[in-house]
Each structure stands twice: as C-alpha cells, then as structure tokens.
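The following record pairs a protein chain with its ligand, beta-D-glucopyranose.
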Amino acid sequence: MALTPAAQLGLRSDFLWGVSTSAFQVEGAVKDDGRGPSIWDTRCRLKGGVGDGSNADVACDHYHRWPEDLELMKAIGVGAYRFSVAWPRLLPQGKGAINPAGLDFYDRLIDAVLEAGIEPWLCLYHWDLPQALDDLGGWTNRDCAGWFADYAVLVAKRYGDRVKNFATFNEFSVFTMFGYAIDWAAPGVTDRAAHLKAIHHVNLAHGAGVDVLRSLVPGASIGAIHNRQIVRPEGGLEENRAAARLLDAHWNGVFPDPQVLGFYPPLVARDMEPYVQAGDMARICRPTDWIGLNHYGPIYAKADPSTTWGYGWGSPPESANHPEVGWPIFPEVFKDELLELTRRYKMPIYVTENGCGGGAGSDTPDERGEIKDTHRIAYFREYTQAMRAAVAEGADLRGYFVWALLDNFEWGSGYGPRFGLAHVDFETLKRTLKNSAYWYRGLIRGEHRGE
Ligand code: BGC
C-alpha cells in the first residue's frame, strides 16, 4: 500500500495538518448581535494598552467573512481548523443570560467547516474574559472556575454533537503572567497574590472544564494548550540564573505539572499553599487525551528587582536574532521541547501553534500582488524538519497547526506583526495567500520530502 504523504515525511500516516486563529484576534464585530465586552476590549481603550493604539473592533471581520476564510483553508488543504469561542459572545455578562445570536454564529461556522471535510478544533478560552466577570475579580476570584464550567456546559451541549476535539485553554501562563504579574495583557494587574490566585483558579477551571466535556460529549478528545519555551539566563550570566529558574517555573511548570502530574513545581509550591484547598489537586489533575504545545522560540530572563517577581524579559544574544522575525530562530530548541514534553508528560502531542511574524518587507504584496515571505518558508522548513527529527527520536506527535491562518490583531502589538499564511489588507480586508501558504500546501501534499 502506498504511504500517505505524512508517512513519507516520517510522521504518522494520519498526521493532522491544521491552521489556528482565535476569536478576539480575527472576529471583529465586537458589538454585533449582542456580544458583550471582554477584558481585551477594555484594554484596547486604555492609553498605552496596545502599542499602536489600535483595537480589534473590526480585526479581520472573520465574524462576517468566515466563508472566505474557509475557502482559504480549502485552498491550502488543511485537515483541521483550530478556533476559539468568544465567551462574551455566548454569555455577554459572562454568566446568566445566553445570547442566541452568538450561539448561531458558531453553529454556522462549525457546520460549514465540517462540510468542507475539515475537523473543527474548539478552544474554550483564548484570553477574552467577559468584562463583567473581571468586574467581579476575574481569575483572582475562585468562583471564576465555576463560571467557566457553566460556560463549558453551554458549549458542550450546543456543539458537542458535531465537535469532538476540545482544548480548555490557550497558553495558560501567558495570560496569567502578563495579565496579573507583568502588565502586558488584560486585565493589566501587577501583584504577586493576584498572579498566584489566577494560576490556581485557572487550573481549577481547566479541571472542571475537562469533567464537563467528558460527561457531556461522547467520544470527546480533550486537551490543554501550553506555551512551553526553554528559559535561558540573559547573557548566560550567573546573576540571571535565579530569575530564569523562577520564570521557568511560572512559565513552563505551574500549569502542565498540576494538570498532568498532580503537583505544583517545588520552587513555587509554598507560594501556592494559601490558595490550595483540600481536594483541589484531584479537581485539577483530570485525565486528558493530548497535550498541546505552542512554540515559537526560547525566551531569556534577567534579574530585575523592579518587577513583581524580580525577573524581567531578557534579550536574546544579538547574533541569534533573526532580522525579519525579531526573535531568535532555534529549531533545535523546538525539537528539545517536543522530546522534553514526551519524557515528562508521556502523552500524545499536538503542536497547536507554530509560526513566525514579520511585518514590513517580505510580508507586503509586490507590484503583482505576490507576497514573497521567504523568511516564513525558511522558518517552516526548519521547524518542521526539527519536528520530524523529534518524531524519529520518539516524540508521540499527532498533528501540527500553523499560527495563523490570517494576519490578525496581535494583542499588545496591534497590527504590526503579521503571522498569517494569508495576508490581510486591513484597509480593504482583502485576503491574499502568501507564498508560505503554497509551501505549506506542498508540505501537506508530500511535495517537500527532500527538503
Ligand atoms: C498566542 C497567539 C499569538 C501568537 C503570536 C501566541 O502566544 O496564542 O494568540 O497571536 O502567540 O504572538
């Protein structure tokens, strides 16, 4: 029997190739059809909340233009679409009254995605907490885990007949650290206790969400999406090592460890104690089916006594920084991360995000309208090679999702960095597939075996 294109690359024959988006970054239509405000709508209105002063009121207008975006997915030939549901679209106040128009939107999207032969991968939470819940303390309030579970019930009951692949959260440590310890994301709190409470309550919400999905969706495949990135001390300096260790625990440990292994990393266990009640670890550590890895590159830590935890974001070595991407390209670190994940958690892995930004230059259409994003093709080539090498060394990898289908609203960076396989003209909202999209199509078809 002939090998599938994926098997010819040394991957599982049923390896899944996908693309990702998130609700707040692409949907726009923030006031349409009864959607309530999220903490990111609020942040966009704060002076300095978003670097370029922009907002996501329109973003890619995916809320209205999703049929076009589905055509892009079909043209690339992906097998899966990972998207997130906007909690404030379904429950404008976060709890209580349901918004039927919001429910209908995802019905339309899911039905059409399925009809196109693409698997919908639904993520419950990609950072857009309803503002009304933040007014009640948001993730610092233990009740938030229960509000999340109620929201998960609504999603499971409505879409569980058609959607089978669910992620509870996207990148736990990014939105808790940047939202509650370092003011780089909504809600922009900088406080140790708030950060620790948010960590624990989000973990409780994850466990409750897993239970809801397991009980309400027969045959569900449930996972959680972690951003794991090896943390290195800036400059390799001794004085930055303690900062790197603590950042590593907060960034890479405090979510997957309790969720999969049932304990907080030793370095932070004492800090967590005041918030952990009897029975909590059993509530958090629920059996899941896969672990999601979002990976871009390593990160660097430096000692900085002026910050909430005494660590700051360090700079990568000058020589390592890729001029176009703006951060270091280290495919071997991706391979190491996949192998470390396999060793530590012993679960099937999906790479739920990998991709590369850029901006001006090669992300701009030329006079013929072609987008020659050669730096992105080089990135994908090197990173998918590293992924294949990790599989050859034993990583149980089941699929790979590019971040992102579209250029979109990049949180605090606004519309500067462009991660899309499709270019979006934010004046006209016209989409154009970049050369990297055609390269990815070729990879899926097995055309880049020799590379
Ligand atoms: C997030 C995305 C984001 C991407 C690129 C990840 O941290 O999940 O929402 O757009 O990185 O910055």
